[in-house]
Fold this sequence. Notes:
Structural class: alpha/beta
Number of strands: 8
Order of helices and strands: HEHEHHEHEHEHHEHEEHHH
CATH architecture of the largest domain: Alpha-Beta Barrel
Radius of gyration: 23 Å
Bound molecules: 3-methyl-2-oxobutanoic acid
CATH class of the largest domain: Alpha Beta
Number of helices: 12
Largest sheet: 8 strands, parallel, barrel
CATH superfamily of the largest domain: Phosphoenolpyruvate-binding domains
Helix content: 40-55%
Shape: elongated
Amino acid sequence: MNNSMKIKTTTLIDMVAADEKIVGLTAWDYLFANYADASGAEIILVGDSLSMTIRGDKNTLGIDLEDMIYHTKMVSKGVRRALVVADMPFMSYQVSPEQALVSAGRFVKEANAEAVKIEGGSEMAKTAARIIGAGIPVMGHIGLKPQSVNQIGGMKVQGRSLKEAKAMIDDARALESAGVFALVLECVPAELSSIITESVEIPTIGIGAGLGCSGQIQVTADILGLLETESPKHAKKYLDVSAIIKTALHDYVGEVKTSIFPDESNTFEVAGEVMDAIRKKEF
Length: 283
Ligand code: KIV
């Protein structure tokens, strides 16, 4: 993959054909969008997980459309190469396909999103088709659907029973028929993800779904160790940023208290004669 080429939804389909893995990261502001874009990831998702990682909410249900548009605007400004996908928040698309289209349109018009993501299986196929029909690419999201946390009784691996596994394969096919350009598979047993990936032609992007997917996506805060809490099992901590931040801020506070900071290198001077005049009050 040419590293300076702008990623489009069709690029992802080409990558599947070329057996090249697709990589996704989440971002929530301009700063992290720049880092994520420079990493070489093809997808930058403004995930509603930011409600938990950045806002401190206990789940993703509280964040609204205005807030997601605000974050998407910032992320779009920081991305040049990757495909910017905005996560549609809870209750911005579930009411009707018309409501979903209006919400999706706002992400494109006001925040420069290039695609949107919705959670749900066959029951969301009509909604996805309505948005796609207006020219807005849609990414599906099945398996663990965090916006349904109250219905499923917690953030649990999905598709472990025969009935659930069959329903998930049907969901993937229904969403593909509706025209979604890719499918997030969250917390799905690896063998089932591989079967889903073989059952559809669109890319599957796994998070806690094993190696058999067409690509992987991770919540950036989890893999950087930005939070003090444990990262989820599906996330590998590539760095412990929270420890680095804590040490640095602790050192700063200590140096201010002991008059070590600021030193000469952080201090500005004025010409001697100006200072003399100030001291003599010659003004
Ligand atoms: O909101 C999010 O970060 C997501 C990922 C889990 C894919 O939807």
